Request: fold
Amino acid sequence: MTDPPGHAAVELPEGSWWDWDVIAWQPGEFRLAAGHDLTYHHGLEPVFTDPLLVTCPAFFHDPVFRAPSADEALAVARQLGERPLVAFEADAGGPGPVSCLVAAERLDIVQGTVLHYRRADAAPGRRYAPWVRREG
Reply:
C-alpha cells in the first residue's frame, strides 16, 4: 500500500498487529513496527516519508485507524498547509484511548519479518531492526 488518500482511514494487511513501537524517527522518515509481540520480531512497518507532524506515544497497542476529523484536518492545514494525514486511536496504557495524528508526504506499508536480535543461522538477506548489531 502506498500513498493513501489524505483524509481516509489507513487499511492494514491481514495480521495480528497488536503491539506498536516507534523504531526510527530521523529527518525524512518516521517508522513504526507492529506485530503480535515485539519481543523477538515484528512483521509490519508503516513508513512515513517527510513527516511534518507526529502526535503519538512511543509505544502503544491496538490502534484503530480512522479518517481525520474535519477539525483535525483544518488545524493541520492552518499550520502546515494541506498534507496527507493519518489518524488513529490507540491504547497507550492510560485510562482511555489516545488520539494520534501523523502528517507526512507519503506512507508505505512494508510487510515481512524483521528480527529484533542477532541470529547466526539467519538466512541471507534477513532483515534486522535498526538497533541490532549484525557482525561479530
In short: The chain has a mean pLDDT of 88. Residues 70-80 form the longest helix (11 residues). Residues 43 and 113 are 4 Å apart (CA to CA). Strands lie at 19-26, 29-35, 41-55, 59-66, 85-91, 98-115, 127-128.
